[in-house]
Amino acid sequence: MEISGPEHFKLTFDARKCTADFSGRANTKLPKLYVVVADGELIYVGVTRRPMRERLYSGWNASGKNGYHGYAWRHTHTEADLYVWCHENAPDGSSLDLETVEAEVAFLIRSAGQWPRSQTEIHFHPSQKEHRELAARIVKVCAKAP
Prior knowledge:
The protein has 146 residues and is of the alpha+beta class. It has a single domain (3-143), classed as GIY-YIG endonuclease (3-Layer(aba) Sandwich). It is 27% helix and 25% strand. The protein has helices at residues 52-60, 96-111, 129-143; strands at residues 3-13, 18-19, 32-38, 41-48, 79-87. The chain has a five-stranded antiparallel β-sheet with strand order 2-1-5-3-4, sandwiched between helices. A hairpin with a 2-residue loop joins strand 3 (32-38) and strand 4. Helix 2 (96-111) packs across helix 3. It starts with a strand and ends with a helix. The mean pLDDT is 91.
């Protein structure tokens, strides 16, 4: 797996609107793993192939249709740090490897006490050493977040 990042972005928001200046790989349709850190706590980890602006927009404008109510953390915080990693050589643009890392990141957070506070969904797949090592590096980066 060739992973680039993290790219770091500051988010400011309320329950209805999010503001961020996205640049670089976050604007691509490459598979991405993203982590939200608020008040020094890793509160959410997600995966998307959409540009981050589109992905966040859908999380802010969810109506509850089909059971999706959007990001819970938009109701409990007003600013956060967003870290984005891109899978540069994903086979056929698949998110499978990053979904595996997503679950490993959530597991590491849970192992330290509790699931990420605003996590609502995790995709579980069999992991390999490479996935677990990447998850550990991601948690380490996010634990040092401002």
